[in-house]
């Protein structure tokens, strides 16, 4: 990892709630408000933006743990700002506090942890999983 990633490093994502982001299942809207999964997606995105400038070409990061509370609704057309702030950094993990808000109204908050690894390690693990799948499905 490149130097400089430490607690206090921040990133921000801004988006407008759309119909596609509403809470629903199987193409049916359950509640006409921002879904929890859409909020978490943007929290993860903000957390990823923290690490990107510090990754070496052979490094990558992936979501490891999300612990979030969805506190209040946001409706179509509202602008949501998601802030991520690194709170713990070591050679393997980056933990960030994440907060989503509409203006001063906090709609969600929690933590997002990423694990850091070498790209070749992930490629090797994915390859092993694909081989195991081929063996169990007869090569399909």
Automatic annotation (TrEMBL):
SUPFAM superfamilies: Thioesterase/thiol ester dehydrase-isomerase. Signal peptide: none annotated. Gene3D superfamilies: Hotdog Thioesterase (3.10.129.10). The active site is at residues 36, 44, 70. Pfam families: FlK. It comes from the Bacteria. Residues 17-119 form the Fluoroacetyl-CoA-specific thioesterase-like domain. PANTHER family: BLR0278 PROTEIN, THIOESTERASE DOMAIN-CONTAINING PROTEIN. This is Thioesterase. It comes from Hydrogenibacillus schlegelii.
């Amino acid at each position: 990892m490149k130097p400089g990633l430490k607690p206090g490093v921040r990133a921000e994502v801004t988006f407008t709630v759309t119909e596609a982001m509403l809470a629903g299942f199987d193409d049916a809207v359950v509640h006409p408000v921002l879904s929890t999964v859409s909020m978490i997606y943007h929290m993860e995105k903000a957390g990823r933006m923290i690490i990107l400038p510090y990754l070496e070409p052979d490094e990558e990061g992936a979501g490891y743990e999300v612990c979030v509370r969805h506190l209040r609704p946001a409706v179509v057309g509202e602008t949501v700002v998601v802030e991520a702030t690194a709170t713990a950094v070591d050679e393997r993990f980056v933990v960030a506090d994440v907060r989503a808000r509409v203006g001063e109204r906090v709609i969600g908050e929690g933590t997002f942890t990423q694990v850091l690894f070498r790209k070749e390690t992930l490629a090797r693990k994915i390859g092993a999983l694909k081989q195991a799948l081929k063996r169990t499905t007869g090569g399909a």
